Amino acid sequence: MQPSDDVLRDIHRRMVRIRIFEQEAGKLMEAGKIPGALHLYVGEEAVAAGVMVHLSDADQITSTHRGHGHLIAKGGEFHKMFAEIFGRVDGYCKGKGGSMHISDMQIGMLGANGIVGAGPPIAVGAAFTNKFKKSGNVAVSFFGDGASNEGSVHEAANMAALYKLPIVFICENNGYGEYTPQAHHQAIVDVADRARGYGMPGVVVDGMDAVAVYEAAGEAIKRARAGEGPTLLECKTYRFFDHVGVRGMGLSYRSDDELAKWQQRDPITLFEATLIEQNIVSAEEAKVVHDKVEAEVQAGIEFAEASPMPDPAALLDDVYK
Amino acid sequence: MAESKTQPEARELTYVAAINEAVRAVLTEQPDAFVAGEDVAGAGSVFGYYKGLLEEFGAERVIDTPISEEGIVGLGVGAAATGLRPIIDIMFMDFMGECMDEITNQMAKMRYMFGGTAYLPITVLTMSGAGISMAAQHSQSLEAWLCHLPGLKVVMPATPYDAKGLIISASRDDNPVFVVLNKMSLGMKGEVPEDSYTVPIGEASIVRPGENFTIVTYSRMVHESVKAAEALSSLGVETEVVDLRSLQPLDTNVVIESVKRTHRAMVVHEAVRFGGMGGEIAAQIQELAFDYLDAPVARVGAPFSPVPFSPQLEQSYIPNADKIVAEARTLLDV
Fold first, then answer.
1. Would you call A162 an interface residue with chain B, using a CB distance cutoff of 8 Å?
2. Percent of chain A, pLDDT > 70?
C-alpha cells in the first residue's frame, strides 16, 4: 500500500503536531504550570501518525497512559487538550479527567487510560459494535510492551480472533515497561510472536519509519474492514523523554548512549529528509508546517490559561447520566 | 409507588422464569441489546435464565464467550460506549475478582472522567448467596464492593416480580446497573405480570407494615425477615420490614420515615457483617433520625469468615429467621 504524496504530507503534519505539542507540554509540566503528571509521546510519533491516517472519525481507538499522540493524530484539537491538562473547564473532559483520561467521543477516541492493559478489552467492545451494526468501521487498540503481559490483553486478543472482529492491536514496543527493560519483563523479543497463539497474523515493523508503519497498518486495517479478523502489529520504537515528564525522576535505568543511538533515528528528522530528498515537500514548506503548528500550540496554551477552573458546584456532575 | 403495572391478573412464575421473561422482553424491545457471557447461549446459563433465547434471537444477540471475565466486561464497556445496550452475565459474583479493573476503573468512571461525554447503558446480571454447598468461591454476597463505586447502580431483587421489573428498568437505564440475583431464590414462586413492566431503581418497598420495630433488608433475607416478624408478632412486637430492592441509589427516605415511626431498627443482610451495607445504613439512620431512636441500630449478617462447604457449617454461617429473632429479642428486651 504505497502512500500518495498527499498522504505523506498528512503523516508529516500529524507527526510534527504531536512533537511540538508534547515538547511544550513537557516544558509546562517541568515549570510546574500543569497539575499532576504527563506521559509524553516524543520519539514514537511515526506509530500514531502512520496508523491514524488510515482512520475516519467513525473508527474508534483505545489509547494508553501515553495518549496525547494518539488523540492528536486522530484529529484532537490543541486548545481543548491544553485546557484539559491544565484542569480547566473548557478541556475535553471539563477538567475531570486530565492527561491520563483525555478523550474525544466525537472522533472515536475512547480515552487515554491510566490502567495498563485496560484498553484492548474496550476496543474489542467497539469492534463488536462495528460488527453488530455492520458499519464497516474498525477499532484500533494501542498498548505497550509492558501491557502485553497483562491478562486483559490476552483475553481481548483471544476474543477478537474468536469472533473475527474488525480490530487491529498495535503494540508500541518502546523497550521499557515503565523503568523495566523488556528483557527483564518478558522472555521474548517480539511481542508479535504471541499472535500465533491468539490465532491472528503477527507483524513486526520499524516504528521509527512512518512509511513502514503506514504500509503495515494499512494491510491490517484493510483486513479488519474486510471481515477477515484482527492483526497484531508490533512497532519497535523508543521514547525520547522519560516515563513521566521530560527528565522524569532522574533514575538511571537506561544509558545516554542508548538514547543517543535512537535519537539518530528520530522519526521526524528521517521522514522529513526523505520527503525533501524526493521533492515531496521543500525545506521551506517543512518549516512552514513547523511554524504553523508552533503558533497553534501557543494559541492553545493561551486559550487554556484563560479558561476558568471548573466550578466546585460541578463536582458531582456526570457521575451518573 | 409509580410502578407501571399493566396487567392486574395474577400469574405465578418462578424467580428463574421471571429473569428469563425479563431478558426476553429487553431483547424484544431494544434492537441494540444483546446478552454475552459464559455459557449463556448454547447452555442457556448454568442457572437456566437464558433458555430459549439463542433460538429466538440468534447467535448475534445471545453470545457465548470464552471464560474471560475481564474480556467480557471490557466488551460490554466498549460496546456500550459505542452505542449498544449490553446485558453482561457474570456467572457468580465471586468471579468479579477477575474483572474488577474493567468494573472499577473503566465502567464506573468512564462517564465522569470524560466530562459526561460518554454514557454506558450496561446491565450486568450476576449471582450471589450461599446455601447450596458451593463453598467459599461460589457463595459470596459482595454487593458492598459495588456500592462503594460512584458511577454504578446496584439492585438486589427478592421476588420474581421485582427480578423482572428491575431487570427491565436496568436495561432502560443509561448507566451501568448491576442486578445481583440470589441462587437460593431461583425456584421461589410469585406473581409476575406477563407484560413488560418496570420496578423503579432507587425505591424501597415496605413488604410488611408494623409500628414497633423496623427491619431494613434486601434480597433473600427479606423472606427470613418476614418470618422473623411473624415470630416477633406473637411476642407483641409489630415489625415493619423494608425491602430496599436498590442499594445504590439507596432509598434513605423510606428507611428514615419507618424508623421515625418505630424508634428501633435492625439491618439484616446475608453478606459478612463487618464492612457490609449494614454499617452504612445504620450510620445513615443515626445521622438522620438520632433523636427518634430508643435503642442502638442492630445488625445481622454473616460472621467474619469465608463461606464454609459442609451443609451443617454453612447453615450455621447464613443468617436466618431464628438468628434475627434472637438478635431482636436482645435488642428489644422481649
1. yes
2. 100
